[in-house]
Amino acid sequence: MKFFEVFLKEYLAILKFERNLSKNTIASYKNDIEKFLSFIENEIEDLSEINHRHLGKFFKFLIEIGLIEKSTARYHSSLKGFFNFLFLSGYIKKNPIEKISAPKLSRKLPEVLSVAEIDKMLSMIDTTNKLGLRDRAIVETLYACGLRVSELINIKISDIYLDDDAIKVLGKGSKERIVPIGSSAKEWIKKYLTESRVLIEKKGKSLNYIFLNNRGTKLSRMGIWKIIKNYSALAKIKKEIHPHSFRHSFATHLLEGGADLRAVQEMLGHVSISTTQIYTHIDRNFIKAEHKMYHPRG
User: Fold this and answer.
1) Residues with Cβ < 8 Å from 266, sequence gap 6 or more?
2) Are 130 and 141 in contact (CB under 8 A)?
3) Low-confidence spans in the chain with pLDDT less than 50
4) Residues 116-175: pLDDT tens digits?
5) Number of CB atoms found within 10 A of residue 121's CB
6) Which 3 state secondary structure label does DSSP give 286?
7) Catalytic residue IDs
8) Among candidates 27, 28, 60, 55, which has minimal Cα distance to 40?
9) How far, in Å, CA of 9 to CA of 278, rounded?
10) Coarse DSSP helix, strand, coil percentages of the chain, rounded to the nearest 5 percent
């Protein structure tokens, strides 16, 4: 589609020099737009011929090939920007994407472990050896504090204030927050520090990070994932469990227990409370039980 090249080139230049977008972002826009143009190249000969039916057909095709909602929404964003540019520049008289709504992203509710399932997983950990002690401290901390994996692996000994029942965490956007820690996790961290970490740490390698691998260096995200996968398998838990499941469980159990939504937002490090509110909709059985118990017509 040679006649489009000049317009696309101009649009990409605007993204680069006026909007200062990154190379990767611009490359994604370019790829999305070219995919659409390639899709309709045998149906049109001029810009003005593109209408909302062409776009509708394209998005239907994306759904049919199994593209996830997030990717489909990205295509819409890319094409919307391009057609807005064409319309505002006077290259087309009608904007065909105005009639095409952006795909609505559904929020998949995360898997949540019950208290019994968490207890079962913890019971599978052999704490008579140094790595078992470490693993117990890791799982206890994940659940007690609702941490992201990236936050957990970057905790340093200097970030732990056991006398104050708190941990300092570096969250998304390098934002620090103080998270409370429960008595159980606190005791296992103490035990790990005094009986296990001293055996694992290596001078010049451990760099004050609290959770270390067998080589004495900071545990990786994959290392944490393998630990969780191992104990969920031993506990015969059928749910799809990963380290983030403990963060989801932490938030859900707090809210089910009556914790204030804004307090949980603060603990999770969410900028928007709407992000935290997803956890108020997870356990349908809990909601039904509450309704049955407390509603006069339950």
Assistant:
1) 177
2) no
3) 282-284, 286-288, 290-292, 294-298
4) 999 999 999 999 999 999 999 999 999 999 999 999 999 999 999 998 889 999 888 788
5) 23
6) helix
7) 148, 172, 244, 247, 270, 279
8) 55
9) 41
10) 60, 5, 30
